[in-house]
Design goal:
By secondary structure, this protein is an alpha/beta fold. Helix content is 44%, strand content 20%. The protein has helices spanning 15-30, 43-54, 65-69, 86-93; strands at 2-4, 34-37, 58-64, 79-83. Strands 1-2-3-4 form a four-stranded parallel β-sheet. Strand 2 (34-37), helix 2 (43-54) and strand 3 (58-64) form a beta-alpha-beta unit. The longest helix has 16 residues, at 15-30. The chain starts with a strand and ends with a helix.
Length: 94
């Protein structure tokens, strides 16, 4: 099952939320599911993806082209899906 997790990509998030995102990512992997998120390289998106990957799970990132051009994407995702814009990104993730 694919599980989409929406979360902040800011580096200014309280540690309690970062820890919770990491626990969620680990649990998704432990249960044999695939994490889908926005492929951000910071914040809650990164915490959930890193933990999922470290636990042996798959992490699919969906991110607009302009964010890749700005180097805002997580480079360790199992799969990276590029979209034209934010609207397409949110549609695809939903």
């Amino acid at each position: 099952m694919n599980i989409t997790v929406y979360g902040a990509s800011s580096g200014q998030v309280e540690q309690a939320f970062v820890s919770a995102a990491a626990r969620l990512g680990s649990e998704i992997a432990r249960r044999g599911h695939t994490l889908v998120n926005g492929a951000g390289r910071l914040g809650l998106m990164a915490a959930s993806a890193d933990a999922c990957l470290q636990a042996g799970g798959g992490a699919v990132g969906v991110i607009p082209e302009f964010m890749i051009e700005q180097d805002w994407h997580h480079k360790g995702m199992t799969e990276l899906i590029t979209t034209h814009d934010m609207h397409e990104r949110k549609q695809l993730m939903a």
